Amino acid sequence: MIQRFDVGPRLSEMAVHNGTAYLAGQVPNDASLDIRGQTREVLAAIDALLARAGTDKSKILMTQIFLTDLADFEGMNEVWDAWVTPGHTPPRATVQARLARPGWRIEVVVTAAC
């Protein structure tokens, strides 16, 4: 069985199947924030979705981070390092990419065990 969360016409925010949660790319609500603020918003959204699936950031299996400018790498990592659970840091890829909306500096995709 597949359980979908916040199903829309184009995508679902999360799908859970066989004990694994697959999150859609999470983006900031406030595009006027700097990279630290946008990263905090995105990570808070991830926390909320994972909680709805009955899991948390300590069970993240893989993370993909998309930044519009690699100059933001240090600021994003500052927030990321304070957020991740010590001893449970997941495998991660970070790449530069053009995102769908101007002002978005970061998008994060997470897969986690439930």
TrEMBL record:
It holds the Pfam family Ribonuc_L-PSP. InterPro entries: RutC-like_sf, YjgF/YER057c/UK114, YoaB-like. Transmembrane segments: none annotated. SUPFAM superfamilies: YjgF-like (SSF55298). CDD domains: YjgF_YER057c_UK114_like_2. It comes from the Bacteria. Coiled coil: none annotated. This is RidA family protein. It comes from Caenimonas sedimenti.
